[in-house]
Amino acid sequence: MLKAGVLGAGHLGKIHLRLLKQSEKYELVGFYDADEAHGKKIEAEFGYKFFNSVDALIDAVDMVDIVTPTLSHFECAKQAIAKGKHIFIEKPITNTVEEAEEIRRLLAQNNLRGQVGHVERFNPAYLAVKNDIQSPMFIETHRLAEFNPRGTDVPVVLDLMIHDIDIILSIVKSKIKHISASGVAVISDTPDIANARLEFENGCVANLTASRISLKKMRKARFFQKDAYISVDFLTKKCEVVKMKDAPETPGDFDMILQNAEGVKKQIYFDNPPIPENNSILDELESFAEAIKHNRAPEVTLHDGTEALRVANQIIDSF
After folding, report:
1. Domains held by the chain: number
2. Which PANTHER family does this entry report, sorted A to Z (predicted)?
3. pLDDT digits (tens, 9 = 90+) for 167-200
4. Nearest residue to 59 via CA among 28, 83, 27
5. Which three-class secondary structure state does DSSP give residue 49?
């Protein structure tokens, strides 16, 4: 079992602590938090060992789970890498693309593994249809949340939209040729609602909307491609797959048949796969353990995290 330690015991950090504790692939050694009083409280309440310094925790583990505020990701990662430790780092990977590229360089130089916490890659609804999404030409995503002061220190693009940016970049195997976007700061000092249009060299267009001032939550993505429409609800963990094929010569009574202006007939059918139950955060952490064990590339590489951050910053720059 890999010895794991967590840097940061905020809302998400506490979830990581609980899951690492129950994982069969890790031995949770303990955690560090900059707020000592808070750290001591967590230690007393849950029994996780609280370390008094970042260095002390890093020295005691094989893998460092960085769940601190984004501004500190770079320094935490550098400290872990300098001591020869693998790193799992929450999204966004770092504050700047330059910092992300430096971490990638240091990891490669020290032959270490790193994974970025883009957890929607492990969402069961997405996994159920992932192989059905083939060369989509139009993608539409909506990621809406109710207002929460936590996370408003960064634009909504880095807080929420970056999840969908990562999913889209992992699917569309083409370079972006143009980005147009708009964002509005309503409550915070940075944009709380944003829309972006990504145009790819292969003709695919993605339209992304993110808001943290909505009255209801929504996390949906729709993919349109030749002879198929695929919908993923990341929030309710449901999916819908609608496909078309050439209509049979003698359709059945309940077959859904469409005929276009040229007289071509297509049969519409539903092909909704089963959705397994899982814990996406536990799965991403354990997949990283497997990548370390077998010395292979993680599911979400630091390159993936860097490119998602790069595009997110390009969207923000185009406001």
Report:
1. 2
2. BILIVERDIN REDUCTASE A (PTHR43377:SF1)
3. 999 999 999 999 999 999 999 888 999 999 999 9
4. 83
5. coil
